[in-house]
């Protein structure tokens, strides 16, 4: 009997740890099942989630009240979990789940999208439709039914918008009006393309849903125009809200002022390096634009394979054989017509056997900023969005053995990795064969650094959207259309634009600390493999788990 008690005594801590981890995982699973049905549609491609069949957004007053109650319930249950015998990894998982839960509060109660942002409802209509159109796979009967279901929800969503928008912001309304322009004809394009290219059993139902959906959007456009003169002019969230975001969602242990200074230093560095690179290349001819879109698509296929080989041959990181490919593709007319987000399909957790896609236009010297670089050399965008950037990271994270780490927490680690791998592969010599592409990489660095200032000044109210757009257009430089679009997106998504530069700086600090602490035991491939498979986890938490350094995370437990 005494022997049995001794065995039980030694087994009890392990049992408690296992039970704690199980409870945390179960709560996380319940939260994410709920979140997949309630998360707002957004133009941000890395935040897209798989919806259940027959899903449609619901932001009626009752649904919003229910979401607020569920937020309180999930947060209370998380706080009340027993933390006895927690491992370090359990603590990391806890903070990831807490961040995801707090994002609900950020959307509903801090930014107050449903009551302040008229464009929010354009995304819950046209944006929700775009989520289904962007999938680069043949249309199935079920997918067509899901499209019809979303279209049928438009009138209800617009009716809810008119009730919920009690404090609408004028600048967000202007963005909504821009996104609503020609909505009826754009929906007609969707209808015509689906009918022309696919057998649709419920053709009349589709046509009726398009008709009613278009009417709802036209009515919403009229309503916004009528209300616009009396709308609120103050769009900024303010410093207190921004600090809340940094500490509770992004898990970045720094002040807005410190981040602003880091952004300015990074901007000056990028301008200096771009100037040096251009001076070095001043006698070289400009690279030619692809003659056809087919040529561009074929070159992107070739380049993506070459990048994967480069990563392995240079011992940079592991490229699993099961990983599918990231390809360029021609833009379908219905996708182009709706256009409510980034034109990428990164697949999903259940579609890992499929290739990811980036839709591109016909190559032309006058294309907007990013498309112009793709028409010159596909590799910078392949590296950021494809391999080893977003698609690569998301796919490996979806295969993470820990379910809580398969989910989006914040853009910081994901966009930070996207920018980090651009500069990392520049240093490894990937672009040595095309000096003009090195100029593109430095200009990308310049843009991402400047976004820090744009984000923080928009959030603190020292920039209008127009001023931010003009500043971007003149300082990068870039086309005005892209600059104003970026500024508008950043204005009502505070904290997103800092993620590229600040995320990259966190990774560089993490790498430097790892090399110093581990000395000869440090292995860059192993570091990158850990970074990528945990790519949804904020960098401050990765650093804590990998190195045991707690100095960046203490504030998150206060």
List keywords for this structure.
three-stranded mixed beta sheet, mainly alpha, 23 helices, 558 residues
Describe the structure.
The structure is a single chain. By secondary structure, this protein is mostly helical. The protein has 23 helices and 3 strands. It has helices at 2-38, 61-79, 88-110, 113-116, 118-133, 141-164, 170-180, 183-197, 203-227, 239-250, 256-280, 293-313, 333-338, 369-374, 379-386, 390-398, 411-428, 435-460, 465-475, 480-491, 499-518, 524-533, 539-547; strands spanning 326-330, 344-345, 356-360. The protein has a 3-stranded mixed beta sheet. Helix 3 runs antiparallel to helix 10, helix 5 runs antiparallel to helix 6 (141-164) and helix 12 (293-313) packs across helix 15 (379-386). Residues 7-16 have low confidence and may be disordered.
In spatial order, strands of the major sheet run 1-3-2
Query: Structural class of the secondary structure composition?
Result: mainly alpha
Largest sheet data? 3 strands, mixed
Reading the helices and strands in chain order gives HHHHHHHHHHHHEHEEHHHHHHHHHH
Question: If you compute it from the alpha carbons, what radius of gyration comes out, rounded to the nearest whole angstrom?
Answer: 24 Å
């Amino acid at each position: 009997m005494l022997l049995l008690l001794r065995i039980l005594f030694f087994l009890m801590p392990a049992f408690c740890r296992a039970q704690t981890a199980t409870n945390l995982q179960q709560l996380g699973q319940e939260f994410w099942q709920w979140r997949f049905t309630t998360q707002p549609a957004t133009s941000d491609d890395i935040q897209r989630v798989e919806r259940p069949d027959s899903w449609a957004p619901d932001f009626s007053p009752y649904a919003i009240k229910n979401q607020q109650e569920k937020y309180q319930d999930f947060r209370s249950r998380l706080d009340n979990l027993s933390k006895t015998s927690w491992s370090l990894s359990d603590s990391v998982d806890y903070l990831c789940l807490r961040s995801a839960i707090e994002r609900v509060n950020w959307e509903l109660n801090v930014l107050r999208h449903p009551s302040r942002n008229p464009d929010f409802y354009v995304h819950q209509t046209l944006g929700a439709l775009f989520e289904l159109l962007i999938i680069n796979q043949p249309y199935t009967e079920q997918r067509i039914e899901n499209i019809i279901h979303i279209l049928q929800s438009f009138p209800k969503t617009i009716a809810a918008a008119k009730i919920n928008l009690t404090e609408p912001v004028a600048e967000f309304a202007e963005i909504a009006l821009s996104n609503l322009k020609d909505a009826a004809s754009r929906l007609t394009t969707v209808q015509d393309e689906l009918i022309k290219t696919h057998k649709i059993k419920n053709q009349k139902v589709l046509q009726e849903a398009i008709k009613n959906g278009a009417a709802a959007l036209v009515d919403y456009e009229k309503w916004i125009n009528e209300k616009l003169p009396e709308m609120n002019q103050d769009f900024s969230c303010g410093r207190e809200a921004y600090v809340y975001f940094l500490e509770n969602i992004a898990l970045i242990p720094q002040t807005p002022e410190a981040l602003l200074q880091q952004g300015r230093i990074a901007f000056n560095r990028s301008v200096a390096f771009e100037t040096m690179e251009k001076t070095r290349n001043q006698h070289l001819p400009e690279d030619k634009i692809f003659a056809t879109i087919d040529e561009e698509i074929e070159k992107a296929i070739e380049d993506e394979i070459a990048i994967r080989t480069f990563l392995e041959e240079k011992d940079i990181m592991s490229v699993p054989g099961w990983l599918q490919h990231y390809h360029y593709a021609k833009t379908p007319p219905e996708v182009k017509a709706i256009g409510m987000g980034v034109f990428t399909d990164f697949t999903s957790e259940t579609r890992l056997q499929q290739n990811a896609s980036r839709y591109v236009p016909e190559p032309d010297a006058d294309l907007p900023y990013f498309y112009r670089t793709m028409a010159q050399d596909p590799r910078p965008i392949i590296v950021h969005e494809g391999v080893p950037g977003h698609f690569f990271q998301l796919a490996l994270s979806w295969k993470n053995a820990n379910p809580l780490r398969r989910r989006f927490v914040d853009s910081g680690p994901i966009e930070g990795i996207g920018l980090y791998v651009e500069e990392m592969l520049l240093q490894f010599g990937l672009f040595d064969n095309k000096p003009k592409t090195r100029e593109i990489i430095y200009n990308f660095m310049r843009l991402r650094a400047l976004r820090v200032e744009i984000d923080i000044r928009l959030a603190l109210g020292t920039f209008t959207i127009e001023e931010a757009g003009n500043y971007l257009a003149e300082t990068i430089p870039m086309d005005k259309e892209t600059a104003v679009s970026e500024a508008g997106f950043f204005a009502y998504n505070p904290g997103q634009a800092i993620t590229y530069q600040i995320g990259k700086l966190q990774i560089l600090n993490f790498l430097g600390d790892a090399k110093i602490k581990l000395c000869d035991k440090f292995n860059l491939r192993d570091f990158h493999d850990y970074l990528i498979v945990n790519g949804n986890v904020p960098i401050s938490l990765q650093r804590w788990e990998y190195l045991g350094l707690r100095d960046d995370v203490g504030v998150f437990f206060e």
